[in-house]
Amino acid sequence: MELISYLDTHVTVWLHAGETVKLSNQAAQQIEKSNLLISAMVMLEIEMLFEKGIVRYGSEQIYSDLHRAIGVNICQLPMDLIARSATTIKWTREPGDRLITANAIANNYAPLVTKDVRIREHYPQAIW
């Protein structure tokens, strides 16, 4: 059985920028041994960061580069399944955190590599 792990937005951006020193040892090990997925919400958040000038590349460029380099894929679970999982999350009103975490929940509570303290406090499968 293959190990699937999700990447949060900041982890995805750091990987693309080659800033792996920002990752914890546990996060780096999880990334190394997993088939990596990102939520469509990660794509949207990256694009919004690009539009604000916070990141240098748009979501399609970052995704394309990471897909070629390390096999990152966009999760293909149906949006209704993800939205239903999101309705069970009551610890945040932030749509991005809710949908990214819900994506992992909807995929059999898959690990989610994130530095986000709030997610780590509430999602037992968060890795950092």
Describe this structure in words.
There is one protein chain. The protein is 53% helix and 11% strand. The protein is an alpha/beta fold and 128 residues long. The protein has one domain (4-127): Rossmann fold, CATH 3.40.50. The protein has a five-stranded parallel beta sheet.
Summarize this structure briefly.
This protein is α/β, with parallel strands linked by helices and 128 residues long.
Blueprint of the fold:
Blueprint: E1 4-7, H1 9-17, H2 25-33, E2 35-38, H3 40-51, H4 59-70, E3 73-74, H5 79-86, H6 95-106, E4 112-113, H7 117-122, E5 126-127
Parallel strand pairs: 1-2, 1-4, 2-3, 4-5
Helix pairs in contact: 1-4, 3-4, 5-6
Descriptors:
128 residues; 5-stranded parallel sheet; alpha/beta; Rossmann fold; 53% helix; 5 strands
Strand order within the widest beta sheet: 3-2-1-4-5
Strand content: 5-15%
The assigned structural class equals: alpha/beta
**CATH architecture descriptor:** 3-Layer(aba) Sandwich
The total count of strands amounts to 5
Share of helical residues:
40-55%
Distance between the termini: 23 Å
Number of domains: 1
**Main sheet characteristics:** 5 strands, parallel
- Please report the number of helical segments: 7
* Secondary-structure element series: EHHEHHEHHEHE
Q: What is the CATH domain class?
A: Alpha Beta
CATH topology: Rossmann fold
* CATH homolog superfamily: 5'-nuclease
